Automatic annotation (TrEMBL):
One Pfam family cited in the UniProt record for this chain: GAF_2
InterPro entries in the record: GAF, GAF-like_dom_sf
Protein name, entry field: GAF domain-containing protein
Domain GAF: 29-152
Organism: Maribacter arcticus
Length: 156
């Protein structure tokens, strides 16, 4: 990972805490990227992604995304590929990457990144905007860097 990428100070401060508030860390990350919706999943011992924090997800969808198998939906595919997965407009996507219920979030521009450290998967972080949007390479790299920092915290 490019060490010249600078994590936003507000996010860095949360990560320096002994026990980061994951909801707050996600909120600060979303604010930095000017996103309205996001999720943070951690990998459990059964290789399932378990929801740790969310922002802007409609209440009725929480059960559908509280546990995600590797390979299912944007988060699951990002985890499986160990690479970011981006969608300019989730509402019009027909690639099959996004699950049908994902359209109920009403988000469009979406980015899911694996939480990776030392080539080990720790989970995923997803951010989304309510408008069509192509995330830049710099934005994708920054989200990966934030994911790596979260993973280092989980690795302790």
């Amino acid at each position: 990972m490019n060490s010249t990428i600078e994590i936003p100070k507000t996010v860095k401060v949360e990560l320096l805490k002994d026990a980061p508030n994951w909801e707050n860390l996600l909120k600060l990350t979303l604010e930095h990227f000017n996103c309205s919706t996001g999720t943070l999943h951690f990998l459990d011992n059964d290789s399932l992604l378990q929801l740790q924090a969310q922002q802007g997800i409609p209440e009725f969808l929480i059960p559908k995304l509280s546990t995600i198998p590797i390979g299912k939906g944007m988060a699951g595919i990002a985890a499986e590929r160990r690479k970011p997965v981006e969608m300019c407009n989730l509402q019009t996507d027909d690639s099959g990457v996004a699950r049908p219920s994902a359209k109920d979030t009403k988000v469009e521009g979406s980015l899911a990144a694996p939480l990776m450290y030392n080539e080990k998967l720790y989970g995923t972080i997803g951010i989304a905007k309510p408008v069509p949007y192509d995330f830049t390479e710099a934005e994708t790299n920054l989200l990966m860097k934030i994911g790596e920092s979260i993973s280092q915290k989980l690795n302790r």
